[in-house]
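Workshop exercise sheet. Pairs work together: one partner reads the sequence aloud, the other fills in the structure field after running the prediction. Swap roles for the next sheet.
Pair: D.N. / O.F.
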Amino acid sequence: MILRYSILICFLSTLGAQIDYNTIIQPIFNGSCTSCHGGAGGLNLSSYENVMAGGNSGAAVIPFDYANSLLWQNVNSGYMPPGNNDLTTAQIDLIAQWIDEGARPEIEMEMELNLNFHGEQNIIPSDNDEKNPDIISDNQGNIHIVWMEQNGGNTNVTYTRTTDGGEIFSDPVQVNSITGNVIAYPQSGPIIRAYNENLYVVYMDNRSGLTAVYMNISDDNGDNWGEDILISDQAYMQMYTDMEIDSDGTLHLIYYNFASNNLIQDVRYA
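Structure field:
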């Protein structure tokens, strides 16, 4: 039995800082300070870089030490802003907290991986050979998996998903609409990507007698798959494909093109 699956749990943690300069501190300065401290000469509070550069009296902010920071001392005492425009206690406390957190330009985030592997299992027990898996998670936390499944000389792309972190997998579904001609190599098999509820799978297939790149799309989160789409009409062979989807939902696909004279080999983008 092949054990091929383990769970990686990703989470974000803040590295100390909870107060973001751009969304919390700079608006305070914009509303109460930059009318006087926003131009040439003296302390300029119009941007993080200017704040940290200080003014005629030297450094205005000492990271991790709000009590000795001239900026905090002036707003806490009511010396600044002048007149009856004192900052609120809450605003002064936010400035103090920001300074004591290191006076960073933005909240720093760290991606951590929980590498406590557990529940190793054969995803879909089968008498067929299962090769070249690929995996992607969508923005809902669902995990989508494809691989090449081989039964004798019959080869296809198989799909399954889990919505509960790998406890249960959906019944396997064949992705390719024309059966039996999928090609995979150790360095290149089917690839799956997700965007909203759309799933995109690209793979190699030699149904025409020559290896070519095909795509199939599911618009219902993997329940049903459409007709196979031939990616390239170039002669002879296309293989070793890869793809990504950008934040706007545009799909970018590359593959290796191999001409029949064995001399022209290039990378194509679609």
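Discussion prompt: The chain is about 15% helix and 30% strand. What would you look at next?
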